[in-house]
Design goal:
38% of the residues lie in helices and 23% in strands. With 74 residues, it is of the alpha+beta class. It has one domain (4-61).
Length: 74
């Protein structure tokens, strides 16, 4: 059975306000690669997020290490 998280739980996990989480759902979160939206479903007046959706969102917004360019003249 899928586990759903509410906005307040996600806000506490990311140390953000519930308003910020709703903005990530509606408008996306800015990253160097562009805006990434948090997938969610609306149940009545509340948003819920599957645990798998949240894990995928975290993976997408996590900073990726940059590969240093090799100096071929050495």
């Amino acid at each position: 059975m899928a586990k759903y998280l509410n906005i307040e739980v996600i806000a506490a996990r990311f140390l953000r306000s519930p308003r910020t989480i709703r903005d990530w759902i509606n408008h996306g979160c800015k990253t160097p690669d562009g805006k990434i939206r948090l997938q969610a479903a609306k149940l009545g007046k509340s948003w819920v997020v599957k645990n798998e959706w949240l894990e995928f969102f975290e993976f997408q917004i996590k900073p990726r290490p940059r590969v240093e360019e090799l100096d071929l003249n050495e």
